[in-house]
Write a structure and sequence with these properties.
There is one protein chain. The protein has 283 residues and is of the alpha/beta class. Among the domains are: 1-77 and 149-206, P-loop containing nucleotide triphosphate hydrolases (Rossmann fold, 3-Layer(aba) Sandwich); 89-145. Helices cover 30% and strands 23% of the residues. The protein is built from 7 helices and 13 strands. It has helices spanning 37-45, 93-100, 104-113, 129-142, 159-176, 187-193, 209-227, and strands at 2-9, 14-21, 26-30, 52-57, 60-64, 69-70, 78-82, 147-151, 180-183, 196-201, 204-205, 240-243, 246-249. It has a 6-stranded mixed β-sheet with strand order 7-8-9-3-10-11, with helices on both faces. It is flat. The two termini are 16 Å apart. It comes from Solidesulfovibrio magneticus (strain ATCC 700980 / DSM 13731 / RS-1). Residues 235-283 are annotated as: Disordered. Keywords: ATP-binding, Nucleotide-binding, Transport. Residues 1-227 form the ABC transporter domain.
Length: 283
């Protein structure tokens, strides 16, 4: 389990966050712009340093300010994907992924998994935005990370590509069985991907923020459909509940059982097939 309890003093507010993300689950961080979501992700990654707190994965402590423990980002065994495309422009896709991979065969396996093996010899400039982001996720997974951190990786893509990449991210969750923390402003994306949704507002937990924004979204959707003469009573992605301060969203149908993993992701055994139980979150 990826876990953190941190305090970070920022210019306009203080971020105080506690988060737990079990293996094989996606924890979505959402909230208004400038609320501290990306800062929290950077603290997990080791790109920023908390003023106080503890961050770790399983029994491995990455940062403990009281004990003076500080593991640098390069030793945290994480995969990190940002909104901006992270591929090296002068390298082919295959070389980009192989650059981080233990062996070239594993890089090819990832490219095939994401349906972009036919682009192995292409450079990023010749690829679409969705293809580049698939490549960036392959690059992040090629190092066999023990956790995957995503900072709005789909926000610059068109709607159809976003839907396709969301589906592929769920496959990553099920195949690799690692904790995934995903930052997004997109309510539909949060509802589709999140095993738990943590809403942060001005550095604090706002457990009702997602529900308030969802109400606005549903009213807007109803108004748009009414313009087409469609009588729409409103329906969400499933029942919405609260567990330990996090919003949990039902999906309306069972997901398929997990498939075998591509390879060991390091650090303990992978979870057994089946839907992961939702864990409570707090911020």
């Amino acid at each position: 389990m990826l876990h953190a309890r941190v305090v970070k003093r920022l210019p306009h507010f203080t971020l105080e966050a506690e988060i737990r993300c079990p293996a094989g689950c996606v924890t979505v961080l959402t909230g208004p712009s400038g609320s501290g979501k990306s800062t929290l992700l950077r603290l997990l990654a080791g790109l920023d340093d908390p003023d106080e707190g503890v961050i770790g994965l399983g029994d491995t402590v990455w940062r403990d300010t009281a004990a003076g423990v500080r593991l640098p980002a390069r030793r945290r065994d994480i995969g990190l994907v940002f909104q901006e495309y992270s591929l090296f422009p002068h390298m082919t896709l295959a070389r980009n992924v192989a650059y981080a991979a233990v062996d070239a065969g594993y890089a090819d396996e990832l490219l095939a998994l994401f349906g972009i093996i036919h682009l192995a010899g292409a450079k990023p400039a010749a690829m679409s935005g969705g293809e580049r982001q698939r490549g960036a996720i392959c690059q992040a997974l090629a190092r066999r990370p023990r956790a995957l951190l995503l900072d709005e990786p789909f926000s610059a893509l068109d709607a159809a590509t976003r839907l396709a990449l969301r589906a592929q991210l769920l496959k990553v969750r099920d195949r690799f069985g690692i904790p995934i923390v995903h930052v997004t402003h997109d309510l539909a994306e949060a509802a589709q991907l999140g095993d738990a949704i943590v809403s942060i507002n001005q550095g604090r937990l706002d457990p009702d923020w997602f529900d308030r924004q969802l109400d606005v979204h549903l009213r807007e959707q109803g108004a748009l459909l009414a313009r087409r003469g469609i009588d729409w009573a409103g329906s969400g992605p499933g029942p919405i509940g609260k567990e330990g301060g996090a919003t949990t969203v039902g999906r309306g149908e069972e997901r398929p059982a997990r498939k075998p993993t591509l390879a060991s992701t390091g650090g303990g055994s992978l979870p057994t097939p089946g839907r992961p139980r939702r864990e409570d979150q707090a911020v």
